[in-house]
Amino acid sequence: MSGWFSGRLPQEWTVEPPQVAVDREEITVVLTVADVDAGESDVATAEARAGRARAFREDTREARMKIAREAQHRYERKVSWGVRVGGHEELWTHVAAPVMTRLRQPQRQVLDTLVESGVARSRADALAWCVRLVGQHEGDWLAELRQAMTAVDDVRAKGPAA
């Protein structure tokens, strides 16, 4: 899929190949555009990067929508977009897909504590907060796990047909 996007996107949009993430509901395409010249301060640089991201979003909107429609027809998933400028990253129109889970009382109590303390507005927000936290702090482990799953898929593909 990332090959299709690399071939379909205008070359002048990015300084490196797009980062494409795929799950059952969505394709997220993050484009890296040229960084800004360092400003007088970190705040000035951060503001310049946010401005470049906003300008890129507005200037490419119509073309991105056309590409998204083609990809949605081809891959039967919603396409979401994002941009990275230096250390600044933004995602636009990405899907918040509902998931169902069954939790026992100790796990529900963790969520309820987050809600009662004001960290989250609801159990759903508390669960999303927990997932984000694991993703931030266990990124290397998750990457290793994904690599292992890819290796298992490769071995299965080489095995005898069922």
Keywords, please?
globular, 4-stranded mixed sheet, 162 residues, 4 strands
The total number of structural domains is: 2
Query: How much strand?
Result: 15-25%
Strand numbers in spatial order across the main sheet: 1-2-3-4
Q: What summary fits the major beta sheet?
A: 4 strands, mixed
Give a short synopsis of this structure.
With 162 residues, the protein is an alpha+beta fold.
Walk me through this protein's architecture.
By secondary structure, this protein is α+β, with helices and mostly antiparallel strands. It folds into two domains: 2-92; 105-158. Helix content is 54%, strand content 15%. The chain has a four-stranded mixed beta sheet with strand order 1-2-3-4, with helices on one face. Strand 3 and strand 4 form a beta hairpin. The two termini are 27 Å apart.
